[in-house]
Amino acid sequence: ETGVTQTPRHLVMGMTNKKSLKCEQHLGHNAMYWYKQSAKKPLELMFVYSLEERVENNSVPSRFSPECPNSSHLFLHLHTLQPEDSALYLCASSQSTGTNEKLFFGSGTQLSVL
Amino acid sequence: DQQVKQNSPSLSVQEGRISILNCDYTNSMFDYFLWYKKYPAEGPTFLISISSIKDKNEDGRFTVFLNKSAKHLSLHIVPSQPGDSAVYFCAAHRGIQGAQKLVFGQGTRLTINP
Predict the structure, then answer these.
(1) What is the reported pLDDT for A68?
(2) Does the beta-carbon distance from B89 to A101 stay under 8 Å?
(3) Residue B94: is it exposed, middle or buried by C-beta count within 10 angstroms (0-12/13-18/19+)?
(4) Nearest residue of A to residue B52 by CA position?
(5) Which terminus of chain B is more solvent-facing, meaning fewer CB atoms within 10 Å of its CB: N or C?
(6) Tens-place pLDDT, residues A73-107
């Protein structure tokens, strides 16, 4: 399998549940990202990991907890979410060095919080 | 503060004609710009990019123009084809601690009519 793979593709959870989103990249990249896409809004950068170290956290609420155990895997742990957290969550990867590098995205997890 | 804006949420163009998608940005520190294309139920895929030191980049039917003084870029697709129907995101780049930070616009939904 190639590219960036996200699981699950769809997730429905209650506000008291705990769940995790998983992302795996097979591109040999060493930077990984979580983005959130809400309806009619820009893609919002949530977290950035470079060489497994978190380098950016864009004021994301603590109910979202990222984990990057190695350069190929990225998780987003979810707990006590709110209905307004319903969105498409996209994972991406890139090379951390070099100019003009682009991000490669997974297909996303469509999350619905009831 | 939205640093990258796509003011047209949708655009409808006849097959064979030119499609022009526009994007404005506010931060002069961005060093290159990208266009991504997104089909339903898929992640965004890279289409074309342009460095801030250039004013035009062409790749087949796709051309991106950059006007730095106006902080404006546009994507031209000619001739437009039905398979071009998708949401197009403009993104602006700056590097952060060994990773690539992309700031996205809201997207423009392009529909190509036969």
Answers:
(1) 94
(2) no
(3) middle
(4) A100
(5) N
(6) 999 999 999 999 999 999 999 886 656 678 899 99
